[in-house]
Amino acid sequence: MCGISGWLLKPNQQRDSAHLRAMAEVLAHRGPDDRGYYVEPIRGVALAHNRLSIIDLSAAGHQPMFSEDGQVAMVYNGELYNYCELRKELEAFGHHFHSRSDSEVVLRSFLQWGAACLERFCGMFALAFWSAADGKLLLARDALGMKPLYYAALPNAQGFVFASEIKAFLALPDFTARVNRAALQQFLEFGYCFDQQTTVLDGVYKLPPGHFLEVKDGVASQPQAY
């Protein structure tokens, strides 16, 4: 497994990059092999990745991973079972690969097909794509929900934040944890929360399996099934 985290701020908002590093440190157990950051203060975007190297052990699989023109950045946690087939298809379109990782296949699939690439993926994953051209952050989760992905609004209406685990939000110095009593009651009574977006913390949500959402100017859309 790997760990991903990051944020997209509303216009004219700023946040200390040390907060991103604190979130990544909390997720260190998810990816002990490597760690990477991308912070663009002017656009208000930040991405972090804790890597567990599985398919390609080289530095070519380092994340965040970028398109050649630097306009798209990706952080990805998971494994794509059909990445070899997709790689051949992408090579036929003229894509040239620089690694043996499934991560690069995921990135180039997005470059080729946009959000429609999600329908082609067979595997377990949670991911985030940042597109500088349109200023959008896209988050997605696999159809069975095997990889976790949580999100919330940042304190003081600063924008949007996401992470592989809820406890990463606790690393933010201005984040206040409040128990979602309805969710806690569901868990104690039934052993799980039947609301697919609810978590034990008020204001923290999980992206449902087989869904994606887009974030623009620090504001998230409603999750959509793909």
Could you explain how this protein is built, in words?
19% of the residues lie in helices and 31% in strands. Strand 8 (150-153) and strand 9 (159-163) form a beta hairpin. It is globular. It has 226 residues and is of the alpha+beta class. The relative contact order is 0.17.
Short description:
With 226 residues, the protein is α+β, with helices and mostly antiparallel strands. 19% of the residues lie in helices and 31% in strands.
Number of discrete helical segments: 4
- Poorly predicted runs are none
Tell me, briefly, the overall form. Answer: globular
Percent of residues in beta strands: 25-35%
Radius of gyration: 17 Å
Classify the oligomer: single chain
Helix content: 10-25%
Structure classification: alpha+beta
Question: Termini distance?
Answer: 23 Å
Overall pLDDT confidence = 96
Structure summary, number of beta strands? 13
Largest sheet: 7 strands, antiparallel
Order of helices and strands: EHEEEEHHEEEEHEEEE
